[in-house]
């Protein structure tokens, strides 16, 4: 069993962020605003999680040098409203292309980013295809990235994402014109994103993710087939063959039947949507396959966890029992929740009526019969303070004393301009797996605190005129 995660009270003064800001020069006002709207959150996360002072500076500098420049334009306020809109897609339900997540079990900070190119969204780069490869090249030179290797990711990319040539041909061949093809694709046009674990060793573990929806649209090949063909091609020795077969058999039992009504289809359907792998040498790169389940209920959790009763070893059942404890504590919207992955909610939009589906990923690794599941409980649309209170109760039940004592207050301190008793968009997901005889949990958060365009007295400088 792992040790309880570390947590300490965060102070009002986030010293590394404030000190660094005095000496930073930004290329443009977008970079300046991104820094002041996101770096304070990151700084407080690092501080409260007991990263040593050197690591706090290391990771904030990494964030400034490698992440801030690829975020593109900041969200702008929609005319006549209080809602902020981002012009590109996003990794978060608010449409933001940056997300901080937090491994609660190890008190470890993580981030996910969808790099945006200078021409993204224009006729020259309507699908933002160039930015990812430039970003990966930049990351490969960063001293903090550990055993950085993109070979497995590139192999998956060839199989799962549409190339510039395929996209150009599809737009040219669309009978109703290129704009109609863009409408068919929907708002999620970037096909990749990158995530990073900020390890307390001082190193960064990179992870790459791929969305094959556009490839499937162009080729007519179902998403499930694209995924399984790509994974099998990357595994010529067949070390994942047994668990792939077991996963495929389970997914076939969850295939929607188009003859049924919408809610019945959702209850029976688990839709694959995303594949991830570690950006390390292929021999040690984990593969994760993600799916969405629009029927949020315990019966589906049981099926996902046990492969409809086939994965019932004592360790798995202990994990399921603990998952049930979390399920009973969390304030969730249960039932049919049909919000799709191609839907984004603007920052500041009304979210009380939002009903999000749950997610799952299956971790494919050699030597096991069934891939290990991790479930994502949807908390977007639930009052954030209720989510934090429920987590506190669960922390107490697990003997996570520091987390129970400090986590809620630290979370509130990271969003000083928000009233978490009324907001419903900051806590998006709470994930659960069972590892080393203990809960393995993370929380995925909205990661942007808007600031004004003028930030006098910050010490920051902008090069552009």
UniProtKB/TrEMBL annotation:
<feature type="binding site">
    <location>
        <position position="286"/>
    </location>
    <ligand>
        <name>dimethylallyl diphosphate</name>
    </ligand>
</feature>
<feature type="binding site">
    <location>
        <position position="211"/>
    </location>
    <ligand>
        <name>L-tryptophan</name>
    </ligand>
</feature>
<feature type="binding site">
    <location>
        <position position="440"/>
    </location>
    <ligand>
        <name>dimethylallyl diphosphate</name>
    </ligand>
</feature>
<protein>
    <submittedName>
        <fullName>Uncharacterized protein</fullName>
    </submittedName>
</protein>
<dbReference type="GO" id="GO:0016765">
    <property type="term" value="F:transferase activity, transferring alkyl or aryl (other than methyl) groups"/>
</dbReference>
<dbReference type="Pfam" id="PF11991">
    <property type="entry name" value="Trp_DMAT"/>
</dbReference>
<comment type="similarity">
    <text>Belongs to the tryptophan dimethylallyltransferase family.</text>
</comment>
<feature type="binding site">
    <location>
        <position position="444"/>
    </location>
    <ligand>
        <name>dimethylallyl diphosphate</name>
    </ligand>
</feature>
<dbReference type="GO" id="GO:0009820">
    <property type="term" value="P:alkaloid metabolic process"/>
</dbReference>
<feature type="binding site">
    <location>
        <position position="374"/>
    </location>
    <ligand>
        <name>dimethylallyl diphosphate</name>
    </ligand>
</feature>
<dbReference type="InterPro" id="IPR033964">
    <property type="entry name" value="ABBA"/>
</dbReference>
<keyword id="KW-0808">Transferase</keyword>
<feature type="binding site">
    <location>
        <position position="209"/>
    </location>
    <ligand>
        <name>dimethylallyl diphosphate</name>
    </ligand>
</feature>
<feature type="binding site">
    <location>
        <position position="99"/>
    </location>
    <ligand>
        <name>L-tryptophan</name>
    </ligand>
</feature>
<feature type="binding site">
    <location>
        <position position="288"/>
    </location>
    <ligand>
        <name>dimethylallyl diphosphate</name>
    </ligand>
</feature>
<dbReference type="InterPro" id="IPR012148">
    <property type="entry name" value="ABBA_DMATS-like"/>
</dbReference>
<feature type="binding site">
    <location>
        <position position="207"/>
    </location>
    <ligand>
        <name>dimethylallyl diphosphate</name>
    </ligand>
</feature>
<feature type="binding site">
    <location>
        <position position="110"/>
    </location>
    <ligand>
        <name>dimethylallyl diphosphate</name>
    </ligand>
</feature>
<dbReference type="InterPro" id="IPR017795">
    <property type="entry name" value="ABBA_NscD-like"/>
</dbReference>
<feature type="binding site">
    <location>
        <position position="376"/>
    </location>
    <ligand>
        <name>dimethylallyl diphosphate</name>
    </ligand>
</feature>
<feature type="binding site">
    <location>
        <position position="290"/>
    </location>
    <ligand>
        <name>dimethylallyl diphosphate</name>
    </ligand>
</feature>
């Amino acid at each position: 069993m792992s040790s309880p995660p570390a947590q300490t009270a965060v102070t009002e003064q986030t010293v590394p962020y404030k000190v660094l800001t005095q000496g930073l020069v930004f290329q443009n006002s977008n970079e300046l605003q991104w820094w002041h709207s996101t770096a304070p959150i990151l700084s407080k996360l690092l501080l409260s999680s007991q990263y040593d002072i050197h690591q706090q500076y290391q990771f904030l500098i990494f964030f400034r040098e490698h992440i801030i420049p690829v975020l593109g334009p900041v969200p702008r306020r929609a005319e006549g409203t209080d809602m902020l809109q981002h012009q590109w897609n996003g990794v978060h339900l608010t449409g933001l292309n940056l997300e901080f997540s937090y491994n609660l079990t190890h008190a470890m900070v993580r981030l996910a980013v969808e790099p945006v190119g200078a021409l993204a969204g224009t006729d020259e780069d309507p699908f933002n295809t160039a930015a990812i490869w430039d970003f990966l090249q930049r990351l490969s030179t960063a001293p903090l990235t550990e055993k950085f290797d993109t070979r497995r990711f590139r192999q998956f990319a060839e199989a799962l994402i549409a190339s510039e040539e395929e996209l150009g041909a599809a737009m040219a061949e669309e009978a109703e014109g290129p704009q109609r093809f863009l409408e068919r694709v929907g708002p999620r046009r970037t096909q990749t994103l990158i995530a990073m674990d900020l390890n307390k060793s001082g190193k960064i573990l990179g992870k790459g993710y791929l969305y094959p929806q556009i490839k499937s649209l162009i080729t007519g090949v179902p998403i499930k087939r694209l995924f399984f063909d790509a994974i099998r091609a990357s595994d010529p020795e067949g070390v994942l063959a047994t668990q792939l077969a077991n996963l495929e058999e389970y997914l076939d039992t969850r295939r929607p039947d188009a003859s049924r009504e919408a809610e019945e289809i959702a209850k029976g359907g688990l839709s694959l949507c995303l594949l991830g792998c570690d950006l390390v040498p292929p021999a040690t790169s984990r593969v994760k396959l993600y799916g969405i389940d629009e029927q949020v209920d315990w019966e589906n959790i049981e099926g996902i966890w046990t492969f409809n009763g086939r994965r019932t070893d004592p360790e798995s059942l202990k994990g399921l029992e603990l998952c049930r404890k979390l399920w009973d504590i969390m304030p969730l919207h249960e039932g049919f929740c049909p919000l799709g992955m191609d839907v984004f909610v603007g920052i500041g939009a009304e979210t009380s009526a939002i009903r999000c589906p749950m997610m799952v990923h299956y971790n494919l690794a050699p030597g096991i019969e069934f891939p290990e599941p991790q479930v994502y409980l949807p908390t977007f649309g639930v009052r954030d303070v209720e989510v934090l209170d429920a987590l506190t109760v669960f922390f107490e039940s697990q003997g996570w004393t520091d987390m129970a004592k400090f986590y809620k207050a630290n979370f509130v301190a990271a969003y000083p301009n928000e009233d978490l008793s009324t907001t419903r968009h900051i806590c998006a997901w709470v994930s659960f797996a069972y590892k080393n005889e203990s809960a393995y949990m993370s929380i995925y958060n909205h990661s942007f605190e808007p600031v004004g365009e003028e930030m006098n007295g910050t010490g920051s400088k902008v090069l552009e005129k």
